[in-house]
Design a protein that fits this description.
The first copy, chain A, has two domains: 75 residues, Arc Repressor Mutant, subunit A (Orthogonal Bundle), CATH 1.10.10.60; 124 residues, Orthogonal Bundle (Tetracycline Repressor, domain 2), CATH 1.10.357.10. Chain A has ten helices and no strands. Chain A is mainly alpha-helical. The longest helix of chain A is centred in the C-terminal third of the chain and has 27 residues. Chains A and B meet through helix 7, helix 8, helix 9 and helix 10 of A and helix 7, helix 8, helix 9 and helix 10 of B. Chain B binds a DNA duplex through helix 3.
DNA sequence: TGGTTTCCATACCGATCGGTATATAGATTA
DNA sequence: TAATCTATATACCGATCGGTATGGAAACCA
C-alpha cells in the first residue's frame, strides 16, 4: 500500500513510479476532504460524503490515506499550513499590540473573506471530536500548546522591551488573546455578520493594554 | 403516546394517571441524557449510550421524549434552566463592570467546579451539530440572540447612567464579552487548568473599560 | 510485445445507526 | 375480581456506518 508519505523518497526526489500512476491529485483531494471535515466535523463527515467531495472511490481513499482518522490528521496538517499562515507573520510584528492586530485581523479576514467554511478547525476538532481516538485530541492539544508557547515567548520579549505594562503576565495575555480569537470563530460559525466580527476585533484592540 | 408535556394538564394539576405509571423519573433521566450530549455532542451520542446512561430502554425513551432530536431539545431546556441561572443574576448587577464580573465568575465556577462536563452546551450545539435539522440550529441561535439582546439593553442602560465610556457601543461590548466567555469554554474543554481560566477572567476584568 | 505493478470500479462485509412492532407485565378504575 | 390502559422488555427493522475483497483496466519496464 502506498500512502501520501511514500511519494517522496528519502532524498526528496520523486520515487520511481512503477505501475499505473495515481489518477487524482492528492493535494486537491485533501483540500476537498478538509472542506468536508471543516463543515461537518469529524463524526458528521461520512466516508460517502468525503469520497464524493474528493472525486475518488473508497478503495483509492484507503490506499492513499489509510483510514478516516489518518485522513483527518492529514487534512489538519493542510489546514495548519495553508490557513494558519498568518500566525507566523503575526509573531514577527514589532510590538505586542502589532502582534494582537495581526492575529485578530488574520482571523477576521479568514472568517469573512473567501469561500472557506466558517469557524476554526482547531475549535471544531477540540469541541466536536470527543468520541474517537485520544491520539487526535492529544495531537490537537499539543499543537495548540506549541503555538501558545510561541505567543507567550513573544509577549515576554515585549515585556522585556517595555512594550507591555507590568501588571499583565505573558501567559495571561496569551490565553486572553486566544480566547477572543476562539470566541470570534464560534460567533462566525453561528452566523455573525462581518460587521459584528469587525466590531469585536476593534473593541479588543481598543481595550488592549499599553499605548 | 404520552410525552413529557402531557404530565400536567392545562390547569397545572397532575393529569389523571391511567394505566401503569412510568417507572423512572423523567427529570433524572433527562439529566443523564444532558450529560451524554454534553460530553459527546449530538452526533457523537448514540441512542444506545443514551438509554444506558438514562437507565431506561429505547421504547420508554421514544414514548416519553419522542425522538433523539426532541430529547436533545428537552436536554437543552434543562441545561438553560439549571446551568445558566447565573445569567439572570448577572444582568441585575448594579454596574456594567459588575455584570461582566458576574458573567465571567459564573462561567468560571461552572467550568472548574462540580462534576459537570467541561465546555458549554451552546458552543457545542452551535459548532458540532452542522448535520441535523436546521430547526435546532435556528433555535440555538434564536436563544443566543435573545440573551444577547438582554445584555445589549443592560449595557445601553449602563451607558445612559454614565457607567461606560462613550467610545464603546453596547453591541460591540456584548459580542466582546460573549466572545471571551466562549473562548473560556473552549479552553476549558481542551483541558485548561483552573488557574489558567482564572487568569483569563482576571485579565478580562483588568482590561474592562471604565473605572 | 509480454510481464509486472498498481490503480480503480463494483460489490460486499459485519457492526452500528435511529427507530419500532409485539407481547408481556403492572397499575388503576369499576 | 374483571376490564382497561399503559409501561417495559425483547427482538427486530431498513439504512448507513467505516472498511475490504476481487477482478479488470491502465501504465510502466524490458
Amino acid at each position: 500500500m502506498e500512502t501520501i508519505d511514500d511519494q517522496l523518497d528519502i532524498a526528496g526526489t520523486p520515487a520511481a513510479a512503477r505501475g499505473r500512476p495515481r489518477q487524482f491529485c492528492v493535494e486537491t483531494a485533501l483540500t476537498a476532504a478538509l472542506r468536508v471535515f471543516w463543515t461537518r466535523g469529524y463524526e458528521g463527515a461520512s466516508m460517502a460524503e468525503l469520497t464524493e467531495a474528493m472525486g475518488i472511490t473508497k478503495p483509492s481513499l484507503y490506499a492513499c490515506f489509510g483510514n478516516k482518522e489518518a485522513l483527518f490528521c492529514k487534512a489538519l496538517d493542510l489546514y495548519e499550513r495553508d490557513k494558519l499562515a498568518y500566525v507566523h507573520t503575526a509573531l514577527e510584528a514589532p510590538t505586542a499590540r502589532g502582534v494582537a492586530e495581526r492575529f485578530l485581523h488574520g482571523a477576521l479576514t479568514m472568517q469573512i473573506g473567501g469561500d472557506d467554511p466558517r469557524g476554526c478547525m482547531g475549535v471544531i476538532s477540540a469541541v466536536a471530536c470527543t468520541n474517537f481516538a485520544d491520539s487526535i485530541r492529544e495531537e490537537v492539544m499539543a499543537r495548540r500548546a506549541s503555538s501558545d508557547r510561541a505567543i507567550v515567548a513573544r509577549f515576554e520579549r515585549a515585556k522585556a522591551e517595555g512594550d507591555l505594562p507590568d501588571h499583565v503576565t505573558a501567559e495571561a495575555l496569551t490565553s486572553y488573546l486566544c480566547a477572543v480569537m476562539q470566541g470570534l470563530s464560534v460567533q462566525a460559525s453561528t452566523g455573525a455578520s462581518p460587521e459584528e466580527l469587525e466590531q469585536l476585533v476593534q473593541t479588543t484592540l481598543m481595550l488592549w493594554p499599553g499605548r
